[in-house]
């Protein structure tokens, strides 16, 4: 039986940092059990050897194949072989020189190595181990990939075949919409977050942001490259590859073709006397549902400054001291939520909603009311809470960092330690 999500971590009581700051908070969607071995993503020899020994997480329209409400489902190479082929048989430079934009390539992303060899199921070869000897040592486990099998383009028919084979004869398997219930077990949720973010980024970056030409996925799905040539533009098949115009993304050090993560602040703002917390409600939420405030960081802005700016813009409240609490990856599409606790200035606690129309309402709510809601009236805005009375405060579930921030303040995070 899968245990409910908790932010508790393994004990680090002997650590100096734990004794001073307390145990680390591990938020939902974080702490993947996979070793990402990011330095092997460009190692063609490793990828070529790993592919037929790998297990694959399939995503359709960015929704994962799941074995149940709490667990992902994996398939083996034989299930995807016809669709995927052998993409790593050619060295990357040679592949780029022979690029043909008319040929559609499935999006395949290397996630890492499952060193514990857990998870699997139908066709995944559960329990198999793979070894690769590199300059840094031996890497042992089960390689894991994510594969987009969305029915689209020239690969649509083959994607449908993979979808059908993946669920055939496996009771309970389905491509599951996981955003609304957030019921995946934490390790599986972290793997899904990585897979979804990278596949979504690949889908959104089909063209070079520097020159506008079509790009191709490289580094096992973790980079988009603007190829120097394109066979589709040759007048005659016998001619040398058509040379594309020069592009800045092919020269020197740059970061325009790598996955992006959007820094986002989310904050529990307490009043100056430390007994109330600021909560807000967006127009699209049910009238009893409230959460902490949040917003995107802007260029050349610290996390602390973003907390102060976003709080004032959305609620009119002026914030003084800000302390970082914990962080959470949020794969919709690729945010990093940086959770903070902030304290309002005594002369700046008045609420003004006219700066920014994002919030329909904001209130100072007493800790006691927040604590009661956290104990039994939580969930996503889209899902009704069974037994909840009208007018009763509703808050985000424990899988949301907003919940962990509120839990921290009602439990005295801001109070001086004895």
From TrEMBL:
Keywords from the named record: Hydrolase, Magnesium, Metal-binding, NAD
Catalytic function, reaction form? a 5'-end NAD(+)-phospho-ribonucleoside in mRNA + H2O = a 5'-end phospho-adenosine-phospho-ribonucleoside in mRNA + beta-nicotinamide D-ribonucleotide + 2 H(+)
Do you know which InterPro entries this protein is assigned to? NAD-cap_RNA_hydrolase_NudC, NADH_PPase-like_N, NudC-like_C, NUDIX_hydrolase-like_dom_sf, NUDIX_hydrolase_CS, NUDIX_hydrolase_dom, Znr_NADH_PPase
Family matches, as PANTHER family: NAD-CAPPED RNA HYDROLASE NUDT12, NUDIX HYDROLASE, NUDC SUBFAMILY
Q: Which GO terms describe its molecular function?
A: metal ion binding; NADH pyrophosphatase activity
What family name appears in the similarity comment? Belongs to the Nudix hydrolase family. NudC subfamily.
Q: Where is the Nudix hydrolase domain?
A: 259-390
Q: Give the highest taxon in the source lineage.
A: Eukaryota
Span list, region Disordered: 219-246
Q: Which organism is it from?
A: Tuber aestivum
Q: What is its EC number?
A: 3.6.1.22
GO process terms (BP): NAD+ catabolic process; NADP+ catabolic process
Cofactors needed by this protein, per the record, are: Zn(2+); Mg(2+)
Q: Where is the composition biased (Basic and acidic residues)?
A: 232-242
Report the SUPFAM superfamilies cross-referenced here. Answer: Nudix
Gene Ontology CC terms, in alphabetical order? cytosol; peroxisome
Name of the protein: NAD(+) diphosphatase
């Amino acid at each position: 039986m899968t245990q409910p999500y908790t932010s508790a971590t393994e004990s680090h009581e002997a650590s100096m940092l734990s004794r001073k700051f307390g145990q680390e908070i591990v938020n939902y969607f974080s702490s993947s059990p996979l070793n990402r071995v990011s330095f092997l993503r460009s190692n063609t020899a490793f990828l070529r050897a790993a592919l037929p020994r790998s297990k694959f997480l399939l995503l359709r329209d960015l929704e994962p194949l799941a074995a149940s409400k709490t667990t992902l489902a994996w398939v083996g190479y034989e299930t995807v072989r016809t669709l995927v082929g052998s993409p790593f048989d050619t060295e990357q430079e040679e592949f780029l020189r022979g690029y043909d934009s008319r040929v559609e390539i499935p999006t395949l992303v290397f996630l890492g190595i499952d060193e514990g060899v857990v998870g699997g199921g139908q066709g995944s070869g559960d329990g198999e181990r793979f070894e690769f000897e590199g300059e840094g040592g031996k890497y042992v486990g089960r390689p894991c990939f994510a594969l987009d099998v969305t029915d689209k383009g020239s690969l649509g028919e083959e994607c449908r075949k993979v979808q059908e084979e993946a669920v055939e004869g496996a009771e309970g398997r389905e491509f599951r919409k996981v955003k609304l219930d957030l019921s995946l077990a934490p390790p599986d949720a972290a793997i899904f977050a990585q897979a979804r973010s990278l596949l979504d980024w690949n889908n959104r970056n089909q063209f070079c942001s520097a020159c506008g030409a079509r790009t191709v996925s490289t580094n096992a799905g973790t980079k988009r490259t603007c190829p120097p040539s394109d066979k589709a533009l040759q007048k005659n098949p016998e001619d040398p590859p058509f040379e594309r115009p020069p592009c800045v993304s092919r020269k020197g050090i740059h970061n325009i073709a790598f996955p992006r993560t959007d820094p986002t602040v989310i904050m529990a703002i307490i009043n100056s006397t430390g007994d109330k917390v600021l909560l807000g409600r967006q127009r699209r939420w049910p009238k009893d549902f409230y959460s902490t405030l949040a917003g995107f960081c802007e260029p050349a802005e610290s996390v602390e400054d973003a907390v102060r700016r976003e709080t004032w813009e959305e609620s009119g409240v002026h914030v003084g001291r800000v302390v970082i609490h914990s962080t959470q990856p949020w794969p919709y599409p690729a945010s990093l939520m940086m959770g903070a606790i902030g304290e309002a200035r005594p002369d700046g606690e008045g609420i003004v909603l006219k700066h920014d129309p994002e919030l329909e309402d904001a209130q100072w709510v007493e800790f006691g009311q927040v604590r009661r809601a956290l104990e039994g009236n939580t969930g996503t805005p889209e899902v009704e809470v069974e037994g909840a009375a009208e007018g009763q405060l509703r808050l985000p579930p424990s899988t949301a960092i907003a919940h962990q921030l509120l839990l921290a303040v009602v439990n005295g995070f801001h109070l001086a330690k004895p």
